[in-house]
Amino acid sequence: MSIVKTATELKFHFRDLVIDQDQIIKLLGYSSDCLPEPFGSYLNETIRDCSHLEDIRGTYQIIEDVELVARRSSILANHLEFKVGKTIRKELEGAEKLAFFVSTAGSTLSEKAVALLGGEDPVLGYVYDILGGAIAEAVGDKLQQLIRQRVKKDGCNITNRYSPGYCHWDVSDQYKLFRLLGGSPSGVSLTPSSLMNPVKSISGVIGIGKDVHFREYQCDLCQMKNCFYKK
Amino acid sequence: MSDILSKLSDCIEFGKINLASPFPPQMKEQEGADELTAKALAQGINPQDVLTQGLMPGMERVGVKFRENKVFVPQVLMSAKAMGTAMLHLKPHFLSGAAKQKGTFIIGTVLGDLHDIGKNLVAMMVEGSGYKVIDLGTDVDAAKFIAALRENPGAVVGLSALLTTTMVNMEKITQEIKQALPDTLVTIGGAPVNNDFCNKIGADNYSSDPQGVVEFLNTKVA
After folding, report:
1. What pLDDT score does A231 carry?
2. CB of A77 closer than 8 Å to CB of A65
3. What is the pLDDT confidence band of residue A3, given thresholds at 50, 70 and 90?
4. Chain B window 103-122: which residues touch A at a Cβ cutoff of 8 Å?
5. How far apart are the CA of B126 and the nearest CA of chain A, in angstroms?
6. Number of domains observed in the structure of chain B
7. Is A171's CB within 8 Å of B191's CB?
8. Which of A29-38, A58-67, B6-15 comes out lowest in average pLDDT?
9. Do residue B19 and residue B46 come from a single domain?
10. What is the pLDDT of residues B187-208, one digit of tens each?
């Protein structure tokens, strides 16, 4: 196996992230001009609370030793095989390098959301949960931007990001992904069934190359018929 | 139906928890599920009637509205919170046998999946419809479901999954449950699953929304 370079780990402040508040309100089922109480107060309370978070982090690692194996619908990175499935492998077509990443809203928020959802205030817990998901995705956006800037000087583009658990990429590959990132990237660990802890975390891969493409619209890749994000 | 039970139904439907709760705005400064349940019981209304004529109709209306996209998750959670508050008053009556639940429902998100909002909504809605709910949480394997079933003979199982890759675990868990306890009814739900998948894995029901699970239980259990 090739020598693994040290992954890049970054810390973020809530204020650094681009969070679309209208989208959060929409996820709550309302529009920004019609958000009844207590949801408005709850949202303000969670946003205020999130501005103090100290454990929003992201880690990425660009791997140069890669191969896309069409017949096995898989990708190889540092000789580790990831069975990403036909759809993702096709989306990574043309990738000369692969960036693996983990981003997290951190354990403070994740634990708060879980405790509230299961206990004293599920509604407030739900608002934390939605905001936590948005933070993890916003950190993912930041990492994606950084990777894009980093490879641009070599004339390369990037693909969208793709995560285990979706499009038939089995979550059991998470262990290999985490291995590439040094084991416990950004303080995120895995359960025996390959799930991330803190819960509000995302992981995945981004293709890099001169001939790869970024899709503005990728909902047609996914089978979730009732997904809120589906346009 | 008495006026107080009708008001109680409204409190559940609109998520009015108690007098202090500002939600919903149109019921501000009115008594909520907490005060009205206590009042109904103090007036001597049968606890079973409080459950079946007061609380359950309200929860059913929420379930139908959620199915029709007329209300969203936060409102359902508010209704569930109102329901939970009312149920605290009824708990001693369940224990004494003065009020009875319709049956037992064991629910969990399958092994390899941590998503629990959908599972929680189903649990709340089923509980609000008069069933005892045992929530095993997330990332639950077959052994845990089977152990809970052995402790609660005749219970129905609900399996939830959000990830396409955990559908395979849903299949394994269903088969292991059916092998260990063949008479167990299994209902499944979650974004990636559908009726075809339900038939393929040998589950007994697929519901795309919580109210569908309640209707399935009402047909098979109640």
Report:
1. 46
2. yes
3. very low
4. 111-114, 116-117, 120
5. 16
6. 2
7. no
8. A29-38
9. yes
10. 999 888 899 999 999 999 999 8
**B96, B126, B157: which is the final residue of a domain?**
B96
Residue of chain B nearest A118, judged by CA positions: B120
pLDDT at A225: 55
Contact A163, A195 (CB under 8 A): no
Asked if B208 and A28 come within 8 Å (Cβ–Cβ), the reply is: no
Same-domain pairing of B169 and B89: no
Which CATH code is given to the segment(s) A8-221?
Answer: 3.40.109.40
State the nearest Cα–Cα gap between B150 and chain A, in angstroms: 24
Q: Does residue B196 share a domain with residue B128? A: yes
B163 close to A (CB below 8 A): yes
Residue A228 has what pLDDT?
46
Residues B197 and B148 in one domain: yes
Same domain, B28 and B52: yes
CATH number at residue B52: 1.10.1240.10
- Chain A CB within 8 Å of residue B49 CB: no
Question: How many Å apart are CA B131 and CA B160, to the nearest integer?
Answer: 18
Residues B188, B145: contact at Cβ < 8 Å?
no
What's the rounded Cα separation, in Å, for the pair B30 and A64? 65
User: Is the pLDDT higher at A101 or at A117?
Assistant: A101
C-alpha Rg value of chain A to the nearest Å: 18
**Both B59 and B91 in a single domain?**
yes
- String of b and e for A154-168 (b: at least 16 CB within 10 Å)? eebbbbbbbbbbbbb
Contacts of A191 in chain B (CB under 8 A): 139
Reply yes or no on whether the pLDDT at A35 is more than 90.
no
* pLDDT confidence band for A224 (50 / 70 / 90): low
Better-predicted residue by pLDDT, A28 or B39:
B39
Inspect the interface and report whether the beta carbons of B139 and A166 lie closer than 8 Å: no
Tell whether the model's pLDDT for residue A221 goes beyond 80.
no
CA–CA separation, B28 vs A6, rounded Å? 57
Partnered with residue A101 across adjacent β-strands are A60, A204
Strand B156-160 to B104-109 pairing: parallel
- CATH for B213: 3.40.50.280
Are residue B28 and residue B131 in the same domain, yes or no? Answer: no
Could you tell me what percent of chain A has a pLDDT over 70?
Answer: 91
From B96, B116, B142, the end of a domain falls on B96
- Residue ranges making up the domain that contains B64: 3-96
pLDDT less than 50: residues of chain B: none
